[in-house]
Amino acid sequence: MADRGGCCPPMDLFRSEAMQLVQLIIPMESAHLTVSYLGDLGLLQFKDLNSDKSPFQRTYASQIKRCGEMARKLRFFKEQMLKAGFSTSTKSAAVTDIDLDDLEVKLGELEAELIEMNANGEKLQRGYNELLEYKLVLQKGGEFFASAQLRATAQQREMGSQQMGDESIETPLLQEQETSTDLSKQVKLGFITGLVPREKSMAFERILFRATRGNVLLKQVPAEDRVTDPVSGEKVEKNVFVVFYSGERAKNKILKICEAFGANRYPFAEDLGKQGLMINEVSGRISELKTTIDAGLLLRDNLLRTIGEQFEQWNIKVKKEKSVYHTLNMLSLDVTKKCLVAEGWSPVFATKQIQEALQRAAFDSNSQVGAIFQVLHTRESPPTYFRTNKFTSAFQEIVDAYGVAKYQEANPGVYTIVTFPFLFAVMFGDWGHGICLFLATLFFIVREKKLSSQKLGDITEMTFGGRYVIMMMSLFSIYTGLIYNEFFSVPFELFGRSAYACRDLSCRDSTTVGLIKVRDTYPFGLDPAWHGSRSELPFLNSLKMKMSILLGVAQMNLGIILSYFNATFFSNSLNIWFQFIPQMIFLNSLFGYLSLLIIVKWCTGSQADLYHILIYMFLSPTDELGENQLFPGQKTAQIVLLLLALVSVPWMLLPKPFLLKMQHENRHQGQSYAPLESTDETLLSEANHGSHGHDHEEFEFGEVFVHQLIHTIEFVLGAVSNTASYLRLWALSLAHSELSVVFYEKVLLLAWGYNNIIILIVGIIVFIFATVGVLLVMETLSAFLHALRLHWVEFMNKFYEGDGYKFHPFSFALLDDNDD
């Protein structure tokens, strides 16, 4: 492709940009800055010249490790900021000149300071939570002991009063004996207090009972509010417990059980006076700790706020440095080890910009020697690069999903911008639905700046990415809807009055019976009088079926014509004479002729049966046509077309393999050993089917012939099946129209007929949900997938190889999407 000059030539989607393999020889002292400037430019795809080395054996492995460690620290800062509820500031995202060594030291100091703050904060928070639990134990335990003491005092009084009333001669002697025996046998009971999670309290009580064989007394009181657990830091429902035991053995068992159940134990004084002092002391310590924790959190928030102000700047710097060193690792050292050698692909138009970047890097790094830029001649297939904008990128993605275009082959993305939404609209023709779809898309387009910076869900992000495709689909749907004259299945007299009217008033409620043409033909689209008539379905079926065949044959012809442009561009005369010409003859001898018959029948108003004509064209080509004759000489024309179709099959199959073999033999007789141009590779690409034409490869005639046989059979059978496949345009259009009629008549009109406001409201709600859910979502997706299939299979397989690979330049602009 000729160089069109200038830094930014006009966008040309028909063929990919002309590419060149370039070699850069960069002095070591300016290598980093050079790669950085090339990353800003984003127009050079580096080749890995050290593919035989592992990542750890490469020159800049240690620098990448340093950048990875800094990226880890930045991720740590981001996690801490998100936990604290801070967002990173984008005000200072513009990168200033930061030294990487200084940044590494600074990040290390900030990380150490933040880790220390977190550790101290966690320690203080744990102590604070323990004190809160301790205070709760003191309060609940104190209440228990106070109530127990009151009950004991009351019991003693009661017993004393009973003794005074029942005095006898024997009583003092017996009481004195009992008292003496009780004092000698009295056992001192110990107790343990703490908190246990409420969900474990029943199991805790059961295990205590079994472990001590019932020789404990357990008292539990639930805490009213959730308690923050000192270990986990989570809010948990807990019970305050007191366990009374006897003996050291029982105590050891209880301590182990408490540890197993995660029960936190706290010391407790039996004396009520000491309990009051302890509560006051704990309350004072809690207030002190609260003040200390608040001051620590304030310091931590200030530190995180300071980090957040520069986070984006640091993050971009580290990402860029890491990507620069990754790229430098793809360069090879020259023999003197003073220069780095780089190879890569770049568009031809970017030559001047790359050279300017190299000169600027040499000047800014004070290098004694500038970098050397030279173009290499290669037979390797270049990458494919289309410069797209936000409107064309989604259409190009539709094509790339099938396969990336081979270098500089005709790009179907140009035609897809029009044909894809148009074929969708043929199946989705309703200007009411089209307006709804357009309004939904308009929301994404109006808010695209805001939405492009947000993280969206999978389905929303996919819809947002294809917003311009959906917009074109909706506009074409409005156009085809006006042609079909359907607004939610209701016809309107938008472009004038109907051409038909009743003979008299008695036929007002009838359909086509009694209708006569009283005016000129309806100027645009379908006459509204057809809707609701008896002959509506047969008429629309016939119209849409014939229209589908016409559109299909036209698009397939476009595909074959594009194969001619490919063959001309790559100077492949074999494909012109033995692929393009016989394919055009075969397709148009049969289905091009059928399209012509459809148009002639429409123009003449003939009653000829086209099925009969096409079938007997094969079965009895010499028979008279009779009433099915549409024009003079039709019988002779059909015989000639049939013979041409039969001749074109061996024309496609036989000559090409023999001519390819002859060309191969001529090359190997020394007639054509001159260096090949980049376009000559296609001569043997057919022979090797995907190779790039290396002369030392052997020519396998059998493989070439079988490949050509498969290609011929595929085209001949595909001409029939692909034409039939376009009938899906008719089928889906009919289904969409009939569904609209069903929802309108059987839901909306039915609800209207009841003359009840509640039923009407319910009917409107059901109609809206059915229209949105079925017609605007499911039918849109269905028509989209069918239009996709028609492009991929019926259109693109006529000319599109799609065996290329994308141009992935080294660009800092692409780093924003990656978190690594």
Describe this structure in words.
With 820 residues, this protein is of the alpha+beta class. Helices cover 60% and strands 8% of the residues. The chain is built from 23 helices and 13 strands. The chain has helices at residues 28-41, 61-84, 100-165, 171-185, 201-211, 248-260, 272-328, 351-364, 393-402, 413-427, 431-446, 448-452, 458-465, 467-484, 536-569, 573-604, 610-619, 634-653, 655-671, 682-688, 701-725, 728-752, 757-795; strands at residues 19-27, 45-46, 190-197, 217-222, 227-228, 235-236, 238-245, 264-266, 332-333, 339-347, 372-376, 500-502, 515-517. Strands 1, 2, 9, 10 and 11 form a 5-stranded antiparallel beta sheet that branches. A 4-stranded antiparallel beta sheet has the order 4-7-3-8, sandwiched between helices. A hairpin with a 6-residue loop joins strand 5 and strand 6. The longest helix has 66 residues, at 100-165. Residues 1-11, 173-181 and 671-696 have low confidence and may be disordered. It is a multi-pass membrane protein. It comes from Hibiscus sabdariffa (roselle).
Keywords:
820 residues, alpha+beta, flat
What's this entry about, in short?
The protein has 820 residues and is an alpha+beta fold.
